[in-house]
């Protein structure tokens, strides 16, 4: 037996009997009502002003407070205030745009109601006085940043707004910008952030609506800053300057945070706090910075390069007009023409895509030019470059300004610095040839044979910027009375280059030894360009080898190509048009007059029809006496060498008729065959001669021209006709790509009927079957989708994707707004006051009962001066409770408590409340297989699926992360069915049946949604694509989290001891043990800061005790009363029994008789 030992008594059996009548209790261990600390915890806190444990916001711990950046007229700010209930600022247009969510926004404005709004168009300007009742959700109709979104009122002459815009695109310095940068770097731990655009807006002494009835004002500041790729918002609240009284707010409560309008959003942490804390953001402690009165938001969803900014910075670094010879360069008009112009070399840039090819040419004094060609060899476009062989770096600004951003005006500015290169002024080089046993074609096209022996001047040319010299060395061809070239040397000089000398020396087996400035050249075959050539690049010259052909392009100006065949060097020289009328040597006088080509050094000339002997004499006058570019010869030349002439060979050619039959009358082939008695050499001579003639023809052959409009403008749904013509009679016109809205006839008639804004690039091809060449034209295509054609601004455009399509801007009238002026202004565009209905065409109905206003602005009428001299005691309310003076309670202080608290002073908890998101949980992801027959675009499918999933009963859809067209064989019916694979993402949230819906009902709901599609039309992309019905096999899970996993992402913020409880209908709920029978035996549960506490109570003869009142003890007075009562009863019972027994014994003695006595009497 537990408890105090009992003394033995004589009546052991009686003691045992009495104890058997009692329950098992612990005498002497009773626990009275909780005292000391327990009593202190269970009793209500005092109502006087004394320090108590409060939340972080009211903690007595000292933290630095964030100060507003300098503002006002003294800080250079502009003031904007209108004495009206609502007003907005002018539009701000960051030159490089402002990253918000996944978009780059063009314009923004602020309102008197504590918002900075990013409108879809310049005409969609509203003030939106009433905050969203649900907070930001990602499906918000307006993209905005809200430092303190609530209905403000500046109409009474109180308060003002200051603002200043800082553009620091090029590294300018400003103190407020430096301060903002410092805060952003500290919070993000990113020291590389450099602001390129910043907006500072300061709301000073802003009063709540209606200003004449409300007390207190707010002073706060918003800083928006971006480096072009990243953007941030700083909300700064003046310490003690946020004084609006929540007790006077009748509508939706204040909203802070942001929404990008494309699914990216964040609500202020204060949105999950009690309402009075929402209105005191100056007390909020930012854990990242350790500052009070500061909120910080990252506004960009992901970091992306800003090509507008890159372009603008590049434009700033360039002179307005190019200082180099930009106007002297041009491109070959076809790939075929350019390949034979040795000034141009094929390169692989990759800038224009897989279907394009590029040729580039450089000069040291004029810069360079690169030209792009299409699959038919058609010229597309050309661009200037300044530094050779740095194509990607040089052309990258073109991509920034013209390809990778949607602002055509930037491309126009780029072209001002780098004017486009065309082919209209292209003039091909003039070729000359030296081949076989030397046969020479002069620059004016005169053919002759010269079999001189020695070193000869082939050509000397000079203009004001450069000079070019080409020499050749001949040797006797075997034992024949003929010669051939065994070496060439060329030297080039320019105003910016010293002499560059290249030598080609014949080696055995048709090899060529190349020397550059007397140094052997080794070609880099590992760095091959698109033509498969080994190259060697040096200052002033580009050498390339392709088999036995070695070419040299001197400063992109003059070029020489040498080939070795049959142990003979054959060469061609190409000179630019600038050398015309400035040449001399064996290649003649280039002046387009063949009559004076055979001009000798002394100035005398022999006619082209002169005898071979005279031509031989002419050629020998250009022999180099002394040491030339090829140095001294190693062999001894005969002094009286005379070659055999063609006329001599013809007289004795009867023996070689079979040999020369393959020459087909080619005189150079016949000469070489007869002179060398070698048909193979003659065949090579003929082949080279034929090639040179084809080269000459190609160089001087131009593709058909395209004449017509370079800009095509059209209005949606209307057909525009443009006629294109060509200078070639046999030219036929086709479209380079299949553009569904265009139709081009072979005669050049173009019809355009715009039906959509799907990006495309219009390319018109004109091809000549006769010469096999094509030309291309890519006109600017500008479409207007405004509601009325009169609203079109064709000179204010934006590019649709990476294409030639530009979308005209719209100038809306006073009755319309939207990107295309497609929406009519209506009084219901701005939401009315909560619970007030809006009648289209009329506006908001009357304010709710007991409120006054216009239906959009409503407030409780009354006098705010009744309790103006009353104030709440310090720390009157506990645990973030908000104290206000209640007019209805006689100006007494009253607490409004968070939902967890049960008493009037916010000290005792116990109610249930919703948890907060501790870590953002992973997304719920599903995959859909869809089919449609409307030839929809990817954007239209995305918008349509997003709309359907956004209308599910449970609004948890976030976005489609992937939308891909699936290639599949055409159906037998031939109908244009398109198949799509869509990855859709949904957000888990702890409250309500969201989790149960996403995990258990989502797939079935999606199937049903696609069975009952209710389409509508969107401003952006068509979202009324009708999909074929789907089955359960067409939708399946990608990612789903069970309840136990999700539990780790939510927490119960507040008092200790709350349990996170899940139910399918309510989701996760923070439940106090007090509401779940925490205390036993009728104990009273109170939820204190340290957790639930039980106050045990007495009942009947027992007293409960223990942490949860789980034990019972009998009261001492009740125990002894029952014990002694039982004992007294037993004693009385014993006495009674004793008396009865004694009486019984006495009675039996008095009346008893012996039987034998009767028998014994007489």
UniProtKB/TrEMBL annotation:
The chain crosses the membrane at residues 1118-1144. It is found in: Membrane. Residues 147-302 form the NIDO domain. It comes from Rhinopithecus roxellana. GO terms for biological process: cell-matrix adhesion. GO terms for molecular function: ErbB-2 class receptor binding. Residues 48-57 have a biased composition (Low complexity). The lineage of its organism: Eukaryota, Metazoa, Chordata, Craniata, Vertebrata. It comes from the Eukaryota. Residues 1071-1110 form the EGF-like domain. Keywords: Disulfide bond, EGF-like domain, Membrane, Signal, Transmembrane, Transmembrane helix. This is Mucin 4, cell surface associated. Residues 1-28 form the signal peptide. Residues 430-630 form the VWFD domain. GO terms for cellular component: membrane. Residues 33-57 are annotated as: Disordered. Residues 303-418 form the AMOP domain. The keyword Membrane applies.
């Amino acid at each position: 037996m537990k408890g105090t030992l009992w003394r033995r008594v004589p009546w052991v059996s009686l003691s045992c009997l009495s104890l058997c009548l009692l329950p098992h209790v612990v005498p002497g261990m009773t626990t009275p009502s909780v005292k000391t600390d327990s009593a202190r915890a269970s009793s209500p806190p005092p109502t006087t002003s004394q320090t108590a444990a409060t939340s972080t916001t009211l903690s007595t711990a000292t933290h630095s407070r964030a100060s507003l950046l300098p503002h006002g007229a003294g800080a250079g700010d502009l003031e904007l205030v209108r004495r009206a209930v609502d007003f907005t600022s002018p539009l701000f247009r960051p030159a490089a745009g402002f990253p918000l969510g996944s978009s780059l926004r063009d314009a923004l404005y602020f309102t008197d109601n504590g918002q900075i709004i990013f409108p879809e168009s310049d005409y969609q300007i509203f003030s939106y006085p009433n905050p969203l009742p649900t907070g930001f959700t990602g499906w918000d109709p307006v993209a905005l940043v809200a430092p303190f979104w609530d209905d403000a009122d500046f109409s009474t002459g109180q308060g003002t707004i200051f603002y200043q815009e800082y553009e620091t695109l090029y590294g300018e310095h400003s103190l407020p910008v430096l301060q903002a940068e410092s805060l952003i770097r500290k919070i993000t731990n990113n020291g590389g952030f450099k602001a390129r655009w910043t907006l500072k807006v300061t709301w000073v002494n802003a009063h709540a609506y209606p200003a004449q009835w409300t007390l207190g004002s707010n002073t706060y500041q918003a800083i928006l800053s971006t480096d072009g790729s990243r953007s941030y918002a700083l909300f700064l609240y003046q310490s003690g300057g946020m004084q609006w009284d929540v007790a006077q707010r009748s509508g939706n409560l204040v909203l802070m945070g942001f929404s990008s309008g494309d699914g990216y959003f964040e609500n202020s942490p204060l949105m999950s706090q009690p309402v009075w804390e929402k209105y005191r953001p100056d007390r909020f402690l930012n854990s990242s910075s350790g500052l009070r009165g500061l909120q910080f938001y990252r506004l960009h969803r992901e970091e992306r390069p800003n090509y507008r900014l890159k372009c603008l910075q590049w434009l700033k670094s360039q002179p307005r007009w190019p200082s180099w010879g930009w106007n002297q360069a041009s491109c070959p008009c076809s790939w075929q023409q350019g390949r034979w112009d040795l000034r141009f070399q094929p390169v692989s840039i990759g800038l224009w895509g897989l279907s394009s090819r590029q040729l580039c040419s450089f000069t040291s004094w004029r810069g360079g030019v690169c030209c792009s060609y299409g699959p038919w060899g058609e010229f597309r476009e050309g661009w200037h470059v300044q530094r050779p062989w740095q194509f990607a770096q040089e052309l990258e600004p073109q991509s920034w300004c013209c390809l990778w951003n949607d602002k055509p005006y930037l491309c126009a500015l780029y072209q001002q610095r780098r004017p486009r290169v065309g082919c209209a002024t292209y003039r091909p080089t003039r070729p000359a040839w030296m081949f076989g046993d030397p046969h020479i074609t002069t620059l004016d096209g005169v053919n002759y044979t010269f079999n001189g022996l020695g070193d000869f001047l082939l050509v000397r040319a000079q203009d004001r910027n450069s000079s070019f010299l080409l020499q050749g060395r001949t040797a006797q061809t075997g034992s024949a009375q003929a010669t051939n070239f065994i070496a060439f040397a060329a030297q080039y000089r320019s105003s910016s280059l010293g002499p560059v000398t290249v030598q080609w020396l014949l080696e055995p087996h048709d090899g060529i030894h190349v020397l550059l400035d007397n140094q052997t050249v080794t070609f880099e075959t590992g760095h091959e360009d698109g033509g498969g050539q080994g190259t060697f690049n040096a200052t002033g010259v580009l050498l390339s080898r392709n088999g036995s052909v070695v070419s040299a392009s001197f400063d992109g100006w003059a070029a020489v190509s040498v080939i070795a065949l049959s142990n003979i060097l054959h060469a061609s020289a190409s000179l630019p048009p600038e050398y015309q009328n400035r040449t001399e040597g064996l290649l003649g006088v280039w002046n387009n007059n063949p009559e004076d080509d055979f001009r000798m050094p002394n100035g005398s000339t022999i006619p082209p029809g002169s005898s071979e002997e005279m031509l031989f004499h002419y050629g020998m006058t250009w022999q180099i006496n002394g040491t030339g570019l090829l140095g001294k010869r190693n062999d001894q030349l005969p002094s009286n060498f005379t070659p055999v002439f063609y006329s001599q060979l013809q007289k004795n050619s009867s023996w070689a008729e079979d040999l020369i039959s393959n020459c087909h009358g080619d005189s150079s082939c016949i000469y070489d065959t007869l002179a060398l008695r070698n048909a193979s050499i003659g065949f090579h001579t003929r082949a080279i001669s034929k090639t040179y003639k084809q080269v000459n023809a190609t160089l001087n052959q131009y593709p058909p021209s395209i004449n017509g409009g370079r800009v095509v403008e059209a209005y949606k749904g209307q057909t525009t006709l443009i006629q294109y013509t060509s200078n070639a009679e046999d030219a036929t016109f086709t479209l380079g790509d299949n553009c569904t809205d265009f139709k081009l006839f072979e005669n050049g008639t173009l019809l355009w009927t715009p039906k959509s804004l799907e990006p495309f690039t219009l390319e018109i091809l004109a091809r000549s079957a006769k010469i096999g060449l094509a030309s291309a034209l890519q006109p600017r295509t500008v479409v207007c989708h405004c509601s009325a054609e009169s609203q079109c601004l064709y000179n204010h455009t934006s590019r649709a994707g990476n294409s030639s399509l530009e979308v005209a801007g719209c100038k809306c009238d006073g009755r319309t707004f939207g990107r295309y002026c497609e929406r009519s202004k209506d009084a219901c565009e701005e939401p009315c006051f909560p619970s007030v209905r809006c009648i289209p065409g009329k506006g908001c109905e009357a304010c709710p009962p007991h409120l006054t206003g216009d239906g959009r602005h409503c407030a409780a009428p009354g006098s705010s001066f009744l309790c103006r001299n009353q104030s709440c005691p310090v720390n009157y309310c506990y645990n973030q409770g908000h104290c206000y003076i209640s007019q209805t309670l006689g100006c007494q202080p009253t607490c409004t408590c968070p939902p967890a608290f049960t008493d009037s002073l916010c000290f005792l908890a116990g109610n249930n409340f919703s948890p907060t998101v501790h870590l953002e949980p992973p997304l719920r992801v599903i995959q859909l297989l869809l089919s449609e027959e409307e030839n929809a675009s990817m954007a239209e499918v995305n918008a349509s699926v997003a709309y359907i999933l956004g209308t599910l009963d449970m609004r948890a859809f976030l976005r489609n992360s992937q939308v891909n067209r699936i290639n599949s064989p055409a159906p037998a019916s031939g109908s244009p069915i398109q198949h799509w694979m869509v990855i859709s993402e949904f957000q888990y949230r702890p409250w309500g049946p969201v989790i149960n819906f996403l995990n258990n009902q989502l797939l079935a709901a999606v199937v049903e949604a696609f069975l009952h599609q209710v389409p509508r039309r969107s401003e952006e992309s068509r979202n009324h694509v009708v999909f074929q019905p789907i089955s359960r096999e067409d939708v399946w899970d990608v990612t789903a989290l069970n309840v136990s996993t999700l539990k780790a992402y939510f927490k119960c913020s507040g008092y200790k001891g709350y349990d996170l409880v899940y139910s399918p209908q309510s989701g996760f709920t923070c439940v106090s043990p007090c509401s779940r029978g925490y205390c036993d035996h009728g104990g009273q549960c109170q939820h204190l800061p340290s957790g639930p506490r039980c106050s045990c109570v007495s009942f009947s003869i027992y007293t409960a005790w223990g942490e949860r009142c789980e034990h019972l003890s009998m009261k001492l007075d009740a125990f002894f009363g029952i014990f002694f009562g039982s004992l007294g009863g037993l004693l009385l019972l014993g006495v009674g029994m004793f008396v009865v027994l004694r009486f019984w014994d006495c009675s039996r003695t008095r009346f008893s008789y012996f039987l034998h006595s009767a028998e014994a009497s007489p």
